[in-house]
Every structure is written in C-alpha cells, then in structure tokens.
Design a protein that fits this description.
The structure is a single chain. The protein is built from eight helices and 25 strands. It is of the alpha+beta class. The longest helix has 17 residues.
Length: 512
C-alpha cells in the first residue's frame, strides 16, 4: 500500500521483527527496522491486533477482543436480551446504517490473539514452532467527511487510547501513535486505505496501526441487509465487508452469512440481534490462508446504528500444497456509540483552515531513529531499506536509492571534499564517466546544509544522476548520496531534495 514494499534487513541493530508473507513454498521470516511493517498481516487484522501491525501493517482478521471487555459490554447486553420481552417475529424490519457526511461515533475496539506458527528460520534447517500472542485496545472518535470525488470514503478520527502489545516467542513488541498526530484523516478507495494527519507527518508504524484497523463505513454496511428482513432470514455479507474484516485480496471460496435472530427491547430501545458465521479461503499479503469467523452483532433500530460487534475467529496459514503451517485464534470486539456533540478537535471550528485532502506535504513519512541519531522526512513511494551501524538506506521501486551516513562533526567532510570523494570512487572503483557537474551550493546556513549533483554513466546503457548533500550540526553531521536512473531524474530529484531539506541530527554523535 502507498507503493511501499518491505526490505529485508541484515543488521542486528534493526530490532523490529515480524512476519511478512507466506509464499506457495514457504513462510519467509524477516527482520525489519522500526519503519518496516509490524507483523504485516500474518494473521490479518488479528496479528496486528486490530492493530494488525504495519501493519504496514500494521497486520486483519478482526477476530480478537478482550474477555474483560466482553464481560463489561457483551455479557450485560446478553442478559438484558434474555430478560427482555420478545417482539412480533412476523414484522419485517429495516436494519440499515447510513454513513453520511457528519455521521459521528465513538469506537472502542479490543483484540486478543494466541497461536503458533511453523517457521523455517534458516535455509536447510528444520522449521521451528514458535508461539505468538498479542492484545490491543483502540479508542477513537470518528466523523465522516464529504467525499473528494464521490467514490472515496473519508473520515477524520481523534485517537483517545492506543495500546498494542505482542509477543513472538519470548520477544515483546509494542506500537503506538504519538499524541501530536492522533488526529488523522482515513481514506478508503477500493482496496486501498491511506491515512494521514493534518497535524504532522506519520511514521510507517503509525500508518500500519490505522490501515489495518476495521474501517466501519465499509465493514458495517456490508454486514447489514439491503432491504427489510424478518426473523430467521439470512443474507451474505458483501465482498467489500468480507475483505475489510479478513484483509483478503482475493477470495477463492467461501462466504460470510448473517442471520437476523430477532428484536427485543433494551433500555426502551428496539435492538436487533444478528448472528455472523462463515469460512473464507483466499489470498492476502501473507499468501494463501483460510479464515473462519463466528460472532454476533447488536443493532439499535431506533437510532439506525450498530452498537456492538463481536467476532471469534481462526486464521490458518497455508503452504503451496494447502497444508496448514500456522494457526492463530483470536477475539475481536467493538463497541460503538453515537456522538451527539462533536469533540473540540473534530468540530467545524477546529477543522476550518486545515487541508483535509492528501497532498505531497501532509503525506510525507517521518523517519526518526533515536539510536542512530538522525531524523528526516520522505515520500510514500520510498521505503526504508537497510539500517546498519551509522547508515540507513532508502529504496524506490523504480531503482533509485539513497545512502545516508551519520558522522561525528570532526569527521564530516565539506561539500567540496565529499564531491571529490564520491566522484573519485565512482571513476576508480566503478569505471564511471562523470559529466554535468553541479558544484556545491549552500541550501541553508544554520545549521549548514550543502548539496551538489552530477551525471554518471556506467557503460552505454546504465546512466544515472547523483544527488548528494552534507549537513553539519554542533552534535554531528550527515552525508547523503542518492542514485537516480537518468530516465526518472525529473520526477525523483525533487523528492530527494525534500529529504535533504528535512535532514537533522538528533543526538551527540560520538567518535568510535
């Protein structure tokens, strides 16, 4: 999603560990930097825990919910259901929620998961059985915004509580959203979801938390019938809703069926109970898998609003032969309530003057590595690659790459020295032909930031543009060298320049 793809890291300093994909032959186990996807969908929305982590993502079986939350929310409702008097079973009722502009609600989601995965940790060695578990708790208020084009669904959320914890074998991971960017615009178009914050750039981990959560304007209408129904009547959940709940990119077989179980009166409100069940087999970013869902929902007929959804599920990861190589069980529970008054940060007055449409600037991603001591912004078409020692790389799908090195101030070269160093290396070691040298110029005085560029040819068929920069601060310095295929220079050079302008050293870089 956003054109981002994962890149395997080789450094032990890149601590973020997660599952990426199951190919027809095997499950690939990867180690990623903090900007990589967190358990990107290994068990769909479950593994990311409502979170999916990441993920990217992130990371979407909505099948986990806390037992405590069920006792707090679900059990009292079930007891009221049993004690309340029945309604006329012959009356057809309309069960429909409209997500029009201005529709606002408070959402509380808890997810729990537990299971085991068989992983071929190293080539040639027997697979290892590892345990996975996790829990998450998200609370947010959400307001539906007008669509920009009539086809895209858009909401703005204010996150009030974000808790994520997951364990892979004995390794614990957590994720969250910084308080400064907990107000986010979430957009959904076909199978793509693009969150951004009007208050500042997001990290990839923060995007993955959001993009893997259930998007109610898609999931809920697809679970509800298209017309009036009577007790005992069933219907199929829409393909869009199934995809939202399971994160399936392709469904090979199966369906999710919803049944209207009846109506009762609870606290003077007429409430419809829905029973949900089914098995889906298909492919998502984890590869082939099978997901089984069972659960129920409560719908307030007077308010026209789904108030509760609980799903228990099993996610089986399959190999190329259809054999199970991992099994995760989880519980997803969501409680919702209508907002009669908008919170201050989602009000008309608060949103006035904000750019709520995606732009190049508000969709930039933040990379902030406190251990490395470097911070910068980068467009979503790029991904963090290798993080090793004092170096970090950025990669682009078109073949461009950026190499960033953090240095002590005393070892940071001048721009002229760096130009000489890079050009001589390419000429002597890579036999490159250097041309069209754009000599160093000052981009910023304090702290000093210089850039330069030139063209390089490696034979007759491999021509690139080099864009380089040197940053010097009191606490340390940074050198940047970017390689852009000649054909993409006009498009990608401005993106490199945006990275350069955002470079910052965030701690004292000591000499080794």
């Amino acid at each position: 999603m956003f054109g981002l793809a994962e890149q395997k890291l080789t450094t032990p300093n890149s601590i973020e560990v997660y599952w990426r994909t199951i190919t027809p032959m095997c499950l690939v186990f990867s180690t990623f930097s903090a900007e990589g996807k967190i358990w990107s969908g290994v068990i769909g929305k479950w593994c990311s825990l409502g979170f999916w982590i990441a993920s990217p993502t992130s990371i979407q079986l909505p099948l986990m919910r806390a037992t405590s939350a069920f006792c707090r929310n679900g059990l009292p409702v079930l007891l009221l259901w049993a004690l309340a008097g029945p309604s006329d079973a012959q009356d057809a009722v309309k069960i429909n929620e409209e997500f029009k502009s201005g529709h606002a609600s408070k959402v509380d989601v808890v997810v729990r998961l537990d299971g085991k995965l068989t992983l071929p940790i190293e080539k040639g060695k027997a697979p290892q059985l590892v345990s996975v578990s996790g829990k998450s708790h998200l609370v947010y208020e959400e307001r539906v915004l007008p669509s920009d084009d009539g086809a895209t669904l858009k909401t703005i959320r204010g996150y009030r509580q974000v808790e994520f914890l997951r364990t892979l074998d004995n390794a614990q991971q957590d994720a969250g959203i910084r308080p400064s960017v907990r107000r986010m615009v979430v957009m959904k178009s076909e199978n793509r979801r693009a969150p951004f914050s009007p208050d500042g750039p997001l990290t990839w981990g923060e995007i993955d938390v959001v993009r893997t959560d259930v998007f109610n304007p898609v999931a809920i209408p697809g679970l509800l019938p298209t017309g009036p129904v009577r007790k005992g009547q069933t219907w199929k959940a829409s393909a869009a809703s199934v995809a939202e709940l399971t994160d399936m990119e392709k469904i090979d077989s199966g369906e999710i069926v919803v049944e209207f179980s009846g109506v009762t009166e609870i606290d003077k409100s007429h409430v419809a109970r829905l029973t949900i069940s089914g098995t889906i087999r298909g492919v998502n970013e984890d590869g082939p898998n099978q997901q089984k869902l069972e659960g129920h929902a409560f719908f307030d007929l007077d308010a026209g609003f789904l108030t509760y959804l609980s799903l228990r599920g099993t996610h089986e990861l399959l190999d190329g032969k259809g054999q199970t190589v991992g099994r995760i069980e989880g519980q997803f529970t969501m409680s919702r309530s209508l907002l009669t008054k908008l919170p201050p940060d989602l009000s008309d007055a608060s949103l006035k003057g904000l750019d709520l449409k995606p732009t190049i600037e508000n969709c930039l991603l933040l990379y902030d590595n406190s251990q490395l001591g470097v911070r910068f912004l980068y467009p979503r078409g790029w991904r963090i690659g290798v993080v090793q020692g004092r170096q970090v790389t950025l990669d682009h799908a078109r073949g461009a790459g950026v190499f960033i090195t953090v240095e002590p101030t005393t070892k940071t070269p001048t721009a002229d020295d760096y130009l000489k160093e890079v050009s001589e290396f390419l000429q002597k070691q890579k036999k490159a032909q250097i041309s069209s040298i754009d000599k160093p110029i000052r981009v910023r005085s304090e702290p000093s930031l210089d850039r330069f560029g030139f063209d390089a040819a490696f034979g007759t068929d491999n021509k690139v543009h080099m864009e380089c920069a040197v940053l010097k601060q009191t606490d340390g310095g940074v050198t940047l060298a970017a390689t852009i295929p000649a054909a993409d220079t006009r498009t990608l050079k401005p993106e490199i320049e945006r990275v350069i302008r955002s470079l910052s050293v965030t701690k004292k870089i000591e000499e080794k």
